[in-house]
RNA sequence: GCCCGGUUAGCUCAGCGGUAGAGCGCCUGCCUUACAAGCAGGAUGUCGCUGGUUCGAAACCGGCACCGGGCACCA
């Protein structure tokens, strides 16, 4: 093992650290250190101090995509901030078994191998599924770690693991006891591809170009003529119309006609009123079916006649219920026609469609075929049209659960961020339909129901009685109690068979916020984790699963975390989360949602390898300023690069170098050894805070306050942007530049001058150390690895930590480019930046006036630089600078900052004059050729006769004049309006006047200078 | 049909009553001993259209157009 290079933290020499930040080693090292020290393993404690998040468990369907990285970045930023705030933070990770998705993948694999799940058998199939889970789950967990997720891996859960299964069984049982789970035969969405029922939510309507076939259905002839023919009011007064002998119906699914059991017309439709009650001879089938009147039929659409197929269409099903029509199923579960379809039996449903149309045409019953664009329900997973099919399934009665949630929402629970999503949630909970939860799949939670098959000849039928139980023994006991005696009397031993089906994945996901915390617990004892961390503080997820997941969680929590009217366990709410932070989706460069199936996903690992996890995180979070909005990630597929992430990487590099600069200039000291820069104390010591110090400390305090406020209220993008600007545009661009002169005490100084310079140097060092250190803390939630590394560098913690030899340190620690020589041992775990307190806000440092004044100073320097650039002065060419200002605060500031101005503008000299002094000088010496610029009321002159490009100067002045003139026109126009002066607030009017005066002064100055150029 | 968003610089987006901002890109000049993944300077917009409210509208209200999304769905 290489020696934990004692040279690495020798930060004084410029050679100690490379010029560019290399994230790979740093990130791996800290991930390892955080984990091995248990930094993110909280213990249960008082609820008051707790903060908890359960992560949305990714499906074990392969690997993570950018959406997960985005979600992770947001959650981790939030929980890391809360940790810095001193909360007892639990962030609980896990994965979801994704029943149908995983089964689909496995079946596809088997098919490719020439087999099928039925060849394999249920047990072997499940074995294979678990092997898949191990692999995919491992990949995903590895990716989450790579992002630096500060979760408690000890508490990692999988929706199919034993603890969660216990919760699922318990939930099913209790819902069943409450009558909220029932079994029955209904029309469900059947996915022929996966051979299972799916819920309404798993169906996606797609517009397709289809046909509308008009079919002629002959009426059954009346036994005797005339009786009913003239009875209809429609016939009117005139000639009796020829008697109607058929109806025409239109359909998009002709094959379903084989299951027709009626034709319906609107009850108010005069054309057909007389026919209601008569019958039709169903073509191809020969069945005699009634004509019924039902308000569902729109008389204006098509012919106003609708064929009714109760077993194959939801609307028809409802009509059938109203009229007591038989339900004839003509299709099998694999999407082929069954025996009831007569000669069409065995044909695939789409083949049958063609065959039925052909047959009707052959019989002269096809009236016409129209192209017709309409919506067809497709299965989300199977990607084929779903078939409404009658079958016996388990359902959750949704309305009572939804009602509780609607009630809670009226009380503001949960709080949606952004608020508008609450409406989407509420609307879905209104007029909700029952939830079909059984799936004809193998991979999932087996339904805890046992059929007493001995009661129905050894097979499961719709009529077979069942018991719901926690396990087979309990089922047997229950069955024995209910059916035992009768069965013995009848001489047939009780025979049980567990329901072969599994539960909808979302049933187990719906329990996630409490099942992961130990619900339902043992023997009625409340689990400690549940007591501490339920309700969770916030759920962070995409808007696309508000119905699937968010609403299911609130509904199920309402069933279990409530005792009577009160939340269980003495909590203040049964809701699984206080806030729901809804974010958008990550879209690709063409604004398409990134998804695996669309093939446009970007592997987060690719970007992490190129730019670092911190850069990716920062880039993603920075993009979310308008929360709830989708984010578009630019990406060049040819080169696997992203300008957005690259910019974040550059920021990381900027921080690296700022720290490098500090370490080279702090003389080996740390914030602790330097001590806090306290204004009063420094004053007493005769080395007071300088202007720039006070300014940056004022800015630091304000940024501290703003950032904490933003992090705490889901303004993560704004927090990121604010810190970026502060770090780069203020700390680096100005503060560091301003103090360079003070940090480098010249060796030529002697005696008292040297003592004073060294004292002032210490002041600057103190401020720099404080600003940098606190900046790193504030940035930590966004860029955890880099800040952890730099913070250790600044604080010199690495020295102490490496002193013990770090027995378990991996070899890579000593690599070049690491600030810390190694992660601290467990004893030093609390020395992690991740576990530091948020910097105390220094209220006294806040100074709005100073910030404003300093902004003016910066602007003045900018004007000088601009003038120099316009005049084409060489960067190194010194030039005198003259400021003319009548405003004392600024003038004083300029005088005070003369050394800084000199350094930052390459000034040969700096003088600050009042307008009167300037006039006097002018009168004495005559006009001088000079560059002139204006910033507010401040005039800036660079008297550099002979050095300048006169044409460029003229151009510049003419531009100034034009600009000022335009401004004068606008402002004067406003002031000329009597209503403005009368109605606008006085301060606005005053500001307007001041601006006008300044603009006029600017124009005049520029004109004068132009004239003086000759 | 119902309900949400969006339309601002070449691109991605902030701003949400006081006469336009950032990042990237672009142009000019700089290897200034923290950083060329950088520094300094610069250019760039009838703020979708149209009425209205207001002293004042990118912002508030009405209408329209276009783009995106969700829900429901008539055979």
What would you say this structure looks like, in words?
- The chain is an alpha/beta fold and 1014 residues long.
- The strands form 11 sheets. The protein has a 4-stranded antiparallel beta sheet. A 4-stranded mixed beta sheet has the order 10-11-9-12, with helices on one face.
- Helix 9 packs across helix 15.
- The longest helix has 29 residues, at 751-779.
- It is elongated and about 130 Å long.
- The chain binds one RNA strand of 75 nucleotides through strand 8, strand 12, helix 10, strand 27 and helix 18.
What is this structure's SSE topology?
Elements: H1 23-36, E1 50-54, H2 66-84, E2 88-92, E3 94-95, H3 99-112, H4 117-120, H5 122-146, E4 157-158, H6 162-177, E5 181-191, E6 196-198, E7 203-218, E8 246-251, E9 262-265, E10 279-281, E11 288-293, E12 305-308, H7 314-323, H8 349-362, E13 366-379, E14 387-396, H9 398-410, E15 415-417, H10 421-429, E16 435-436, E17 438-439, E18 449-452, E19 466-468, H11 472-490, E20 496-498, E21 502-503, H12 505-509, H13 512-515, H14 528-533, E22 536-542, H15 546-560, E23 562-563, E24 566-567, E25 577-583, E26 586-587, H16 604-611, H17 613-622, E27 631-632, H18 643-665, H19 671-674, H20 679-684, H21 691-712, H22 716-743, H23 751-779, H24 784-795, H25 797-803, H26 848-871, E28 879-884, H27 888-896, H28 898-905, E29 907-913, H29 915-925, E30 931-935, E31 938-942, H30 950-976, H31 978-983, H32 986-1013
Parallel strand pairs: 1-2, 3-4, 9-11, 15-25, 22-25, 26-27, 28-29
Antiparallel strand pairs: 5-6, 5-14, 7-8, 7-13, 9-12, 10-11, 14-16, 17-21, 18-19, 18-20, 23-24, 28-31, 30-31
Helix pairs in contact: 1-24, 2-17, 9-15, 10-15, 16-17, 17-18, 18-22, 18-23, 18-24, 21-22, 21-23, 21-26, 22-23, 23-24, 26-27, 30-32
This protein binds one RNA strand of 75 nucleotides through strand 8, strand 12, helix 10, strand 27 and helix 18.
């Amino acid at each position: 093992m290489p020696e934990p290079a004692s040279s690495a933290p020798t930060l004084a020499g410029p050679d100690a650290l490379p010029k560019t930040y290399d994230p790979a080693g740093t990130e791996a090292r800290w991930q390892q250190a955080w984990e091995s020290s248990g930094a993110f393993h909280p213990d249960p404690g008082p609820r008051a101090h707790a903060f908890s998040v359960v992560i949305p468990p990714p499906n074990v369907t392969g690997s993570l995509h950018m959406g997960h990285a985005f979600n992770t970045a947001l959650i981790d930023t939030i929980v890391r901030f809360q940790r810095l705030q001193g909360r007892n933070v639990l962030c609980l990770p896990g994965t979801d078994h994704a029943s149908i998705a995983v089964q689909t993948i496995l079946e596809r694999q088997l098919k490719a191998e020439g087999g099928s799940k039925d060849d394999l058998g249920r047990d072997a199939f499940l074995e294979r599924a678990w092997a898949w889970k191990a692999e995919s789950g491992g990949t995903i967990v590895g990716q989450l770690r790579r992002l630096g997720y500060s979760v408690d891996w000890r508490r990692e859960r999988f929706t199919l693991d034993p603890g969660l299964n216990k919760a699922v069984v318990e939930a099913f049982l209790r819902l069943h006891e409450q009558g909220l789970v029932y079994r029955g035969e209904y029309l469900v969405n059947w996915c022929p591809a996966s051979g299972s029922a799916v819920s309404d939510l798993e169906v996606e309507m797609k517009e397709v170009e289809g046909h509308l076939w008009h079919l002629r259905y002959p009426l059954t002839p009346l036994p005797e003529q005339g009786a009913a023919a003239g009875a209809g009011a429609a016939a009117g007064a005139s000639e009796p119309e020829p008697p109607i002998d058929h109806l025409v119906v239109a359909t998009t699914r002709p094959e379903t006609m084989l299951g027709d059991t009626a034709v319906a017309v609107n009850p108010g439709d005069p054309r057909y009123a007389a026919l209601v009650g008569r019958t039709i001879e169903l073509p191809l089938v020969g069945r005699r079916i009634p004509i019924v009147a039902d308000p569902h039929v729109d008389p204006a659409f098509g012919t106003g006649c609708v064929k009714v197929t109760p077993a194959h269409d939801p609307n028809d099903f409802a009509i059938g219920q109203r009229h007591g029509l038989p339900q004839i199923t003509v299709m099998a579960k694999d999407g082929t026609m069954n025996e009831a379809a007569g000669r069409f039996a065995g044909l695939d449903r789409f083949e049958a469609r063609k065959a039925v149309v052909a047959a009707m045409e052959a019989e002269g019953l096809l009236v016409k075929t129209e192209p017709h664009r309409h919506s067809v329900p497709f299965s989300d997973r199977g990607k084929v049209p779903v078939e409404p099919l009658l079958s016996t399934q388990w359902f959750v009665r949704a309305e009572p659960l939804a009602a509780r949630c609607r009630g809670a929402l009226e009380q503001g629970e949960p709080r949606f961020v952004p608020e508008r999503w609450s409406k989407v949630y509420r609307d879905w909970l209104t007029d909700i339909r029952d939830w079909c939860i059984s799936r004809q799949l193998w991979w999932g939670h087996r339904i805890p129901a046992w059929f007493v098959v001995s009661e129905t000849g050894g097979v499961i039928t719709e009529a077979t009685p069942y018991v719901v139980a926690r396990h087979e023994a309990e089922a047997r006991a229950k069955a024995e109690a209910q059916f035992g005696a009768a069965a013995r009397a009848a001489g047939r031993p009780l025979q049980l068979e567990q329901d072969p089906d599994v539960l909808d994945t979302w049933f187990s996901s719906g329990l996630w916020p409490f099942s992961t915390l130990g619900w339902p617990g043992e023997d009625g004892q409340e689990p400690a984790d549940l007591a501490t961390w339920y309700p969770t503080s916030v759920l962070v997820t995409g808007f696309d699963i508000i119905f699937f997941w968010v609403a299911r969680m609130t509904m199920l929590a309402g069933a279990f975390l409530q005792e009577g009217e009160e939340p269980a366990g003495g909590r203040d709410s049964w809701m699984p989360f206080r806030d729901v932070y809804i974010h958008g989706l990550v879209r690709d460069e063409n604004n398409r949602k990134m998804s695996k199936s669309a093939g446009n996903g970007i592997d987060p690992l690719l970007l992490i390898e190129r730019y670092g996890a911190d850069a990716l995180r920062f880039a993603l979070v920075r993009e979310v300023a308008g929360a709830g909005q989708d984010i578009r990630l630019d990406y060049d597929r040819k080169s696997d690069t992203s300008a957005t992430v690259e910019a974040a990487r550059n920021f990381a590099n900027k921080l690296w170098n700022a720290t490098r600069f500090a370490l080279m200039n702090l003389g080996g000291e740390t914030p602790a050894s330097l001590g806090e820069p306290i204004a009063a104390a420094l004053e007493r010591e005769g080395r007071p805070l300088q202007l720039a110090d006070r300014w940056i400390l004022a800015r630091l305090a304000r940024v501290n306050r703003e950032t904490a406020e933003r992090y705490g209220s889901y303004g993560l993008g704004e927090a990121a942007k604010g810190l970026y600007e502060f770090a780069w545009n203020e700390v680096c661009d100005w503060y560091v530049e301003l103090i360079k002169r003070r940090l480098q005490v010249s060796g030529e100084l002697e005696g008292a001058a040297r003592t004073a310079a060294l004292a002032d140097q210490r002041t600057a060092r103190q401020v720099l150390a404080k600003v940098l250190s606190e900046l790193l803390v504030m940035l930590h939630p966004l860029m955890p690895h880099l800040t952890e590394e730099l913070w250790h560098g600044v604080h010199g913690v690495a020295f102490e930590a490496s002193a013990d030899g770090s027995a378990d340190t991996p070899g890579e620690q000593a690599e070049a480019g690491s600030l810390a020589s190694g992660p601290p041992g467990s004893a030093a775990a609390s020395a992690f930046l991740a576990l530091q307190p948020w910097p105390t806000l220094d209220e006294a440092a806040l100074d709005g006036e100073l910030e404003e004044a300093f902004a003016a100073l910066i602007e003045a320097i900018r004007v000088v630089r601009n003038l120099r650039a316009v005049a084409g002065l060489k960067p190194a060419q010194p030039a005198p600078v003259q400021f003319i200002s009548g405003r004392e605060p600024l003038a004083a500031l300029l005088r005070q900052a003369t050394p800084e101005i000199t350094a930052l503008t390459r000034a040969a000299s700096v003088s600050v004059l009042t307008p009167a002094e300037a006039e006097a000088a002018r009168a004495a010496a005559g006009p001088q050729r000079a560059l002139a610029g204006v910033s507010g009321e401040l005039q800036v002159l660079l008297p550099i006769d002979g050095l300048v490009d006169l044409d460029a100067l003229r151009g510049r002045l003419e531009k100034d004049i034009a600009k000022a003139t335009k401004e004068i026109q606008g402002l004067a126009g406003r002031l000329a309006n009597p209503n403005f002066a009368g109605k606008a607030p006085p301060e606005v009017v005053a500001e307007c006047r001041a601006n006008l005066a300044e603009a006029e002064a600017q124009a005049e100055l520029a004109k004068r200078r132009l004239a003086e150029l000759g």
